[in-house]
Amino acid sequence: MLTVTPEALELVLEIRSAEDDPETLALRIAVTGVAGAEFAYELGFEELDSLEGEHVRTQVGDLVVAVPVESVDRLQGAVLDLPRDPGQGGMVIRNPNRPDPMGSLPPGVADELSGTVAERVEQLLQSHINPSLAAHGGYASLVDVSDDGVVRVLMGGGCQGCSVSAVTLSEGIKRMILEAIPEVVDVVDATDHAAGESPYYS
Fold first, then answer.
1. Which of 89, 97, 104, 114 gives 20 to 30 Å between its CA and that of 42?
2. Strand (E) or helix (H) holding 57
3. E strand or H helix at 9
4. What distance in Å separates the CA atoms of residue 98 and residue 167, rounded to the nearest whole number?
5. How is 123-140 classified by DSSP, letter by letter?
6. In the chain, what are the domains?
7. Is 0.70 topped by the overall pTM?
């Protein structure tokens, strides 16, 4: 599930040795939310006998790593390691998994859409995509639909110039539109991310 490098293990055991009864402590690693395009984590020592809730426990050398069951899938293949930059302290989690920026479409959404391809894209943006983006202060609007099924969208508000806008488009907006409207073959970003008050791509 999760790999601990020898260097990270050595550091964890060194830190744990300063605690009272270190042998009774597990390193608990949990996914606590989302930070941009990555998961947010909580790492800490907890007594093995006092862990609340169901955990998957893994023995790594002299250390027990405990992961809450709800975090297991999101930590599959992750590596706990030291930063590559020797001057940077702490530890890092290199995780191949990414949070879903938009969630999933409820069943039957495609059947609720009607009209031309452009009209259905507009309906989908207003009913399902923009409510999700609004939580981050952003929105997406339809620019046009080409004759060969390419949709161009404009991202505004908090999405314009945002460092994770490409992820939001490719893994969120594009996925939803392609799933709900079979005539669409691609979704591209028509936003000028270098414009605005705080452009990311400037």
1. 104
2. strand 55-60
3. helix 6-16
4. 10
5. HHIIIIIHHHHHTTTEEE
6. 2-94 (2.60.300.12), 109-189 (3.30.300.130)
7. no
